[in-house]
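Handout, tutorial session.
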Amino acid sequence: MGRMIPTPGSNLMAPSSANHGNSMMSSVVNEGSVSMNTLGSSRSMHTDGKLDVEVKVKSNADQFWNAIMDSANIFPKVCSDLYKTVELLEGDGRSVGSVRMVHFAEGSPIVKSSKEKIDELDAAKKKVAYSVIDGDMMQYYKSFKATLEVIPEGEVSLVKWVCEFEKASDEVPNPDMIRDFAAKNFKEIDEYLLKA
């Protein structure tokens, strides 16, 4: 039986839905505002892959981008069900080279922390790329890199999150639950901003 990967904010230790064969899986969550894609191959043949999610938010792009860039303050406050703390270890959290340590909320049985470094940042395009460089997730993934972009669409915005990963072994499932975690995070931030 393959190893199961826990996910941040999840009470379950269950593998994600697997892709079988060389295919692309696409699903839309019932809310209609979330689009998810998984690009990958058979778990027994390849250990790398790519996932993405798009979330329509009602907040304007500047407001949402500023909340993302203030993750050390906003995430634990707004998404306390997902985050315990977010600490800035290096830099200001708004520039290349900044490093943060994310401690996930109770209910995350094994993945309790993630050390992340900003690799690229384009404030004008509201786009940031970061890598997981340490923490529990590195037991399951040799590399895990994500890009987040906030795209203005009039008074609302489209938030795109893409991750590229290399599994530590072919037994590790795709990080679908981490993608779902990101989508939930974006929705909770949007709800908070709309109330502010």
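The second record follows below. Compare its token runs with those of the first.
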Amino acid sequence: MPVKCCFHRSNAGETMAWSESVDTVLANKEGLAAFRIFLKSEFSEENVEFWLACEDFKKTKSSTKIASKAQKIYSDFIQADAPKEINIDFHTKNDISENISEPTLSCFDAAQRSIYSLMAKDSFPRFLRSEVYKELVKKHQDRNQKRWLPFL
């Protein structure tokens, strides 16, 4: 049984494991980077950016930072004509708009769930069929072969 090299960040097995769920991609630095490149090519990178902003927001402790981060997320992703406006239903958008003056750590949860679902059901399956993903898998397979054949 081959021994894993401790200097190798992400191996072919991990890359293949990304196909199991969008969570495995979002939790892996290289997987996330590849997914972002793919979403950018589809003009939908705002989805993962919003999801990441919400993950960061939920870790906020200071009430003043909660207010400022919530306003930033709102102005970047939610409000009409936002520079990175996400596609969410009217009801969710309206709820956020009505409550943004007194934000809570859960104020974006419904929108984040909606965007996560969109990524998981729509973007992620296309990512797995994309050249970005296929090239990454191939790169990792090639890297693994070379690592075990250093004298060839």
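Points raised in discussion: Residues 56 and 69 are 9 Å apart (CA to CA).
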